[in-house]
Amino acid sequence: MNPEAKVPAFPEAAAVAESGPAHSVDRIMAVAYELFSTRGVRDVGVNELIERSGVAKATFYRHFPSKDSLVFAFLEQRDKQWTMNGILSEARRRGSTPQEQLLAIFDVFGEWFLREDFEACSFVRVMLEMGPAHPLGQASIDYLAKIRGHVQAVAEEAGLVRPEEFARSLLILMKGSVIQAVEGDMLAAERARQMAVWLIGHHSG
Amino acid sequence: MNPEAKVPAFPEAAAVAESGPAHSVDRIMAVAYELFSTRGVRDVGVNELIERSGVAKATFYRHFPSKDSLVFAFLEQRDKQWTMNGILSEARRRGSTPQEQLLAIFDVFGEWFLREDFEACSFVRVMLEMGPAHPLGQASIDYLAKIRGHVQAVAEEAGLVRPEEFARSLLILMKGSVIQAVEGDMLAAERARQMAVWLIGHHSG
DNA sequence: ACAGGTGGGAAGACCGGTCTGTCTTCCCCC
DNA sequence: GGGGGAAGACAGACCGGTCTTCCCACCTGT
């Protein structure tokens, strides 16, 4: 048998998913990440997930006991990949001082808002889709609080007074600018950044 | 025949709905307003709507050709009842100057956040639930733009410079504080109000 | 004043489709 | 030969939406 005939449905299915990862769970996660982050979690069904990742339904449910457990895994990956390795580390890289790092968050946001596939913050979206009482809503709230913790840490490095209050105010600006960007205001990040400048000024001793 | 025996299912159905409005369409709207505003539009089905409003399915579809048309009607009522007669008119009533009226928005927000049934801004919620491309998402964006128009009008009364930019920035604060309040930050309105003070200051001449 | 027609509404069966989740069948590869 | 995975049928619930059946209140004609 020639090698081309050996592989019936698996390779092109992998190509559909991500043209890469060999293991089923990786392909499922890659597809879930793309669909959930761009279209939300309620709009994406299990059937579509398994079809797009080229995986059998039984395989899906062997790795994830329920759709919700996949959403939990997605939120965790979103936190690692997008929050940590995406926004926060990039903001820290750009600013030479803690103050500049805080403001750089909105520079990164501004570029993020221009992306084709920009579709709002997944944590805010899941929280509103499922409600704050639902376990998935609670998890989203926890990840948002984690972001606030990091902002607060940078604020402490900057020597700002009342760092927790500062972080809560800055997250209002972050969330508000994201929502406004969904509406189509492409300059939302600039506006929020300007208000962040004033906010930092009033927390500097 | 005694009067009690005359009325078989209609009155208690009205009591279930709102204990008031006689006409079917009013009861449907009352139930839809409560359920949609507290739980979102995707989570509430037609069957639940007709059951809670004590109305037949055929009656529902005689008044509303589809569920989406009811959601459109809900958004319009939300704009009239909540935005106009609720937040904006109350804010205008409280402040004696345009500047105070702008800041009073956040005082009204602060009290709104404390309500039992507070469950986020319906326009933002529908926009994220349906996506900004969906007709219902578009309608939500239009209503948010209408709110911005009113804020801009008050800003012009106040003689603020660049009133449109001001209004867009203030709406970032409004939306951000609402999202943060959903997470449980009960002081989100105060924080946003403080930032609004700085924002007004920088737009005053 | 009363009989009969009429129309709106309640109740709910029903339709096709979709959802999550289970289970069977087959096949390929070790 | 045995196990994992692909394919997909299937179950049970629910979705939005249509349609039938029955009943009751009101209007009309005599």
Q: Could you explain the architecture of this structure?
A:
2 copies of one chain form a homodimer. Chain A is 76% helix and 0% strand. Chain A has 2 domains: 1-64, no CATH class; 67-205, Tetracycline Repressor, domain 2. The first copy, chain A, has helices spanning 3-6, 10-17, 24-39, 46-53, 57-63, 67-94, 98-113, 122-130, 135-157, 163-183, 188-202. With 205 residues, chain A is mainly α. In chain A, α7 (98-113) crosses α9 (135-157). Chain A is elongated, with a radius of gyration of 20 Å. Chain A has 11 helices and no strands. Mean pLDDT of chain A is 91; it is low at 1-20. The termini of chain A are far apart. The first copy, chain A, binds a DNA duplex (30 and 30 nucleotides) through α5.
CATH top level of the largest domain in chain A is: Mainly Alpha
Largest sheet data of chain A: none
CATH fold annotation of the largest domain in chain A: Tetracycline Repressor, domain 2
What is the number of helices of chain A? 11
| Biggest contact | A-B, 41 and 41 residues
CATH architecture of the largest domain in chain A: Orthogonal Bundle
Compute the gyration radius of chain A: what is it? 20 Å
How does the helix and strand content of chain A classify structurally?
mainly alpha
What global shape of chain A is seen?
A: elongated
Q: What's the N-to-C terminus distance of chain A?
A: 76 Å
Number of strands of chain A: 0
Helix content of chain A: over 70%
Strand content of chain A is: under 5%
Give the CATH superfamily of the largest domain in chain A.
Tetracycline Repressor, domain 2
The secondary-structure element order of chain A is HHHHHHHHHHH
Assembly form of the protein: homodimer
Number of domain modules of chain A: 2
Stretches of chain A where pLDDT is under 50 for at least 5 consecutive residues are 1-20
Compute the average pLDDT of chain A: 91
